[in-house]
Structures are given as structure tokens and as C-alpha cells.
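Notes from the pairing session

We agreed to fold both candidates in a single pass and log them together. This is the raw record for the first candidate, unedited. Please don't reformat it; downstream parsing expects exactly this layout.

Candidate A
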Amino acid sequence: MTEHNHRMVTLHNGQSVSSWSEEWRLECEAMHALELPRNRRLVYLEDAEKERGKAAVDKLKAVILAIHNKRRQPQGFV
């Protein structure tokens, strides 16, 4: 069995998780989706829902929205 070199990473909400965790995979997917133009992002999410189901995509959408909102906050906003 191969040993994976993982490290701790911080999610948008401040939570620390392994770089091999499902939470980090979801965070990376959400960041990728945010980089897509809006029309391509909508197609991406529609395709993901066909493959993984509505519940999985709803979870992804929630992370996308949370990251988007965090990016829009002014620096130093409490």
C-alpha cells in the first residue's frame, strides 16, 4: 500500500482538514466552479447533478456560495 503525503489545509470557514479529505476535495471543486464563466458553471452543475444527484450538487452549491460571499467581504470585516 502506498503512503500518501498529506498535509493540513484550511477551508474557507477556517476549519483545518487533511489535503486528502472529502471536505478539501469539495472546496477545490467549488473554487474551480467559481472560476468558470457563469454559463459554463451552470452547465457544469447540471452535469454534476445528472452524475451525482441533487443532494451532492446542493452541497457543492452551498460551498460555492459560501466561498463567493467570503471573497466579497471587505478585508478586515468582522
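Candidate B (folded immediately after A)
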Amino acid sequence: MDKLTQAQWAENLLNDDFFKKVIEDLKKQQIGVIISSSPLDVDVREDAYKHIKTIDLIVGHLQGIAAEKQIREKRFKIL
């Protein structure tokens, strides 16, 4: 799959309402784990935090792929 096709797929996924809801629900679930943990559950909170950061990493990666389309368009305008 070429980069422009990947960019379009990533953009479509990021704009998909179901995908956005799933990401939001996953983050809320992990925040709930942090909130409901006892003061001594440091490992549980750290794991939940790592999960949130992993979700952010995945979304960020998709945003980077989706930006490839705009980067190419701007590059051709400059040339």
C-alpha cells in the first residue's frame, strides 16, 4: 500500500465516529481505574497511565500517517 493510500485510510479512521468513541471509552476506562484505585495501588495506576499513553501513541502515529497527504501537497506547491 502506498503512502497516500495509507494517509487516506488513517484520515478516514481518525474521522470515524465509532473509532473516536472507542478511543474515548478506552481512555475513560483507564482514568476510572486510576480514580478507583486505592492509595497503595501504585502499580495499578502506573499501568493505567501507560495504557493511556499507549492509546495516545497509537492515535499520534495515525495522525502522522494522515499528515503525509498534506505534507506531499505542500511539498509540490513549493516546488
